[in-house]
Amino acid sequence: MAAEIRIGWIGLGNHSLKNLMPNLPAEARITAVCDRNPERIAEFFRTHAQAPAYCDFHEMAEKETLDAVFCVVSPAVHFEAGTFFARRGIPIFIEKTPCESLEQAECLLAAQRAGGSFPAIRKRCTASHSNIAKKNISSRPTA
Predict the structure, then answer these.
(1) Nearest to 43 by CA among 59, 35, 55, 69
(2) What residues are paired with 28 via a beta bridge?
(3) What confidence tens digit (pLDDT) does each residue in 62-72 have?
(4) Total structural domains within the chain
């Protein structure tokens, strides 16, 4: 079995809880969470194992040992957290828009290079696109 990957999670909204977290690989374990909304932290604890919870990702980084970070919030926080963790050499997954400007994107890239890590940035497809693709694939004749 692969070694455990200690994940810090920033942003506990529905997309995180319902779409991303359920698809983590078995060796990934969420060891700390961060959200500015205490109600979202409480919701996370209703369905997931207890983990240290923070309202500030800087404090989470200071107190926890993390192998990677998922950041699923606003572009402003994506940029701030992305550069913060990238400079420390910690890989970060950033959902949707990573930054608010080209200058911020260039700064994020420079932080990644300086820290020797990489940000993974993903823009999700809407369910309708996924359903259309699934329908097209399943309607193809088999050989």
Answers:
(1) 35
(2) 5
(3) 999 999 999 99
(4) 1
